[in-house]
Specification:
This protein is of the alpha+beta class and 399 residues long. 29% of the residues lie in helices and 25% in strands. The strands form five sheets. Strands 9, 12, 15, 16, 17, 18 and 19 form a seven-stranded mixed beta sheet that branches. Strands 1-8-6-3 form a four-stranded antiparallel beta sheet, with no helix packed on it. Helix 7 crosses helix 8 and helix 7 packs across helix 9.
Length: 399
Amino acid sequence: MLVEIKVPVLPESVTEGTLGDWHKQVGDSVAVDENIVDLETDKVVLEIVTTSAGVIESISFETGDTVKSGDLLAVVNTDAAVSAAAEEAPVAAAASANKASPSVRKMINEADLSVDEIKASGKKGAVLKQDVVQHLQRQPTQKSTSAPAPAAFSTEAAQPAIAPLAGRNDRRVAMSRLRAKIAERLKQAQNTAALLTTFNEVNLKPMMDTRARYKDAFEKNHGVKLGMMSFFTRASVEALKRFPAINASVDGNDIVYHDYFDIGIAVSSERGLVVPVLRDADQLSYAEIEKSIRALGERARDGKLAIEDLTGGTFSITNGGIFGSMLSTPILNPPQSAILGMHSIQQRAVVIDGDIVARPMMYLALTYDHRIVDGKDAVHFLVTIKNILEDPSRLLLGV
């Protein structure tokens, strides 16, 4: 029986995707639920798996092709058995065939190369187009043996050709669908929103003392470490409750106020910046926030985020401090009206009760859409977060 493998139904916000590396080729045997190709959308990478075991009968698209919902990707013959010749083929040869997609193998054959001599950078040792290009750039220029090349600008005797300087090559790589979408959304934020950023600084010693006091008991009871993000998330939710416009969004000529708190946590991955969403953050405990953030971060790094993980946020938090950023102006994640920027913690001299002391200080930045958020509310929002972090017991008392 022939089983068709099609592009799954994509959400309304995702109209098409780009095929990544094929993990199986025509004639390869596949098992049930085995990933045969990756589909990159502007939000996540989806794994296309087989529903039946068998042998790949045909493949309709190549790596880099654009496909839509319902497009036929491949056909699996569930009645076919691996031929004896295939079973007797050397294992190394089979492995080499699976290292490159059809389009990449075509490049390799045209360049008279072997797939095994090219350093692979793709998943599971797959050879990508840029790997072939880089390999060719590293190869010495082939000289013709039929006749000497004419010397450039020579008058009497042939002069040696001048070799190009090392490190002066250009490498053109197609922008990934995710990177293109990031660029589009950031430009949209600049073009449509009235962006403004306000700053404040917070003394994190009280929060850090609280973490140090309870971190061992917290990890023992909940099985997860007590990090900073749970404090910042809870403080942000409390501030959003007090200033609803910062948890709102613009839809045409309307302002949409959200009575729920879905907090986007910016995560850096190999594919670019993604912002998975922490649903109903106001209803989560510190332990639940830490577990959810850890799980979302792991799925982001492994490319396992679902489209639902990245949609519907009402407010975002980004932490440039993990990369050493001292101060920055984060940009909105449309259609949200604000984003909180965290930065690196530095010991700085501050005046407390008339004395100059060293304290772990962090600059906070709030970028907001001035069309619906007034400057006064933005400043008070940051002050609220500052007050809560400098005295975490405020959350217990609701002050």
